């Protein structure tokens, strides 16, 4: 036997009291309608009743059923799922610090640049997460929190989609980015807290040095996993467009500092990874997760899940109301 629906908004069912009023209104309209008088009515009596005569009572009936369906839709019927959702959620608190400096426009990940690939891989990374709270810090010459720790991956994906270079002052403030990320994790109660730094350059801006921030992370017992994106040395870099609108690329020297990335990871108990292609970046993020201990973020037992079932009622309400208006203005039109 299928499960009976429950109503999430049961007070809306008081709207069913409108049904008797609609029936009374239909009866009064029928009584108040002026009849047409003929001198020889027996001619019409012998001809019998037409189809319209039998269908006219359908008009108030259609309206009553449409209103009933609309009220049931507003009451939001729901069907309980047979599966039970566990509210004891295990997860990691992760803050991703993503470099938005202009060097991320380098084209050594052709046909796309470094930032485009990083955004794609981060979006894929979110698609595989279930219970990990994830925050996002972006940085160039300064660092800002783009998204606090959240389980709403849909919002995070939209935020990542909108990320652009040349929005922040240029530079690579790795120390400030790490400090901002640690600040987002400071009040976290999760056993596993981690910062993932994704950058393609060396620290050349900001107020804090990377190693000062690494010392803070060490004191807070927050490992920093560093991922150095790009090949380093001379790489293709956009220098504008030609007459036909095509991007002009030139080999440009972009300095990197793998030793700094390694030192930050070693000081905090994290790991250092080098990503010279999209697959390398994917592997780096996956290795971060594989090395972490999962912890309880919430305790809560179990909860039933429900499926919304108001859509058929809403469609029926609109369909029946449209049918009534169509019949009333065409085939069943009544002239006073």
From TrEMBL:
SUPFAM superfamilies: vWA-like. Gene3D superfamilies: von Willebrand factor, type A domain. It holds the Pfam family VWA. Keywords: Cell membrane, Membrane, Transmembrane, Transmembrane helix. InterPro entries: Aerotolerance_reg_N (IPR024163), UPF0353/GerABKA_families (IPR050768), vWA_BatA_type (IPR033881), VWF_A (IPR002035), vWFA_dom_sf (IPR036465). The chain crosses the membrane at residues 54-75, 310-327. PROSITE patterns: VWFA. This is Aerotolerance protein BatA. Residues 93-292 form the VWFA domain.
């Amino acid at each position: 036997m299928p499960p009976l629906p429950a109503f999430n908004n049961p007070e809306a069912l008081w709207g069913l009291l409108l049904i008797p009023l609609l029936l009374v209104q239909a009866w009064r309209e029928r009584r108040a309608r002026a009849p047409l008088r003929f001198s020889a009515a027996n001619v019409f009596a012998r001809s019998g009743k037409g189809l319209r005569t039998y269908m006219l009572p359908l008009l108030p009936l259609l309206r009553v059923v449409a209103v009933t369906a609309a009220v049931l839709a507003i009451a939001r019927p729901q069907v309980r799922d047979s599966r039970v959702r566990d509210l004891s959620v295990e997860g990691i608190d992760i803050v991703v610090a993503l470099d938005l400096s202009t060097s991320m426009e380098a084209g050594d990940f052709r046909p796309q640049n470094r930032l485009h690939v990083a955004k794609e891989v981060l979006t894929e990374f979110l698609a595989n997460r279930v219970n990990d709270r994830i925050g996002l810090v972006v940085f160039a010459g300064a660092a800002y929190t783009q998204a606090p720790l959240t389980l709403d991956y849909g919002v995070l994906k939209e935020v990542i989609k909108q990320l652009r270079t040349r929005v922040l002052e240029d530079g690579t403030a790795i120390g400030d980015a790490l400090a901002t990320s640690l600040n987002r994790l400071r009040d976290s109660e999760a056993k596993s807290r981690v910062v993932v730094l994704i950058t393609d350059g060396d620290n050349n801006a900001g107020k804090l040095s990377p190693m000062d921030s690494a010392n803070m992370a060490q004191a807070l017992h927050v490992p920093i996993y560093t991922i150095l994106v790009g090949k380093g040395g001379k790489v293709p870099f956009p220098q504008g467009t030609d007459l036909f609108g095509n991007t002009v690329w030139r080999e440009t020297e972009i300095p990197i500092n793998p030793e700094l990335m390694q030192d930050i990871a070693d000081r905090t108990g994290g790991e250092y990874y080098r990503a010279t292609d999209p697959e390398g970046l994917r592997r780096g993020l996956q290795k971060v997760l594989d090395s972490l201990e999962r912890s309880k973020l919430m305790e809560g037992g179990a909860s039933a899940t429900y499926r919304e079932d108001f859509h058929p009622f809403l469609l029926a309400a609109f369909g029946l109301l449209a049918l009534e208006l169509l019949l009333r203005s065409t085939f069943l039109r009544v002239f006073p």
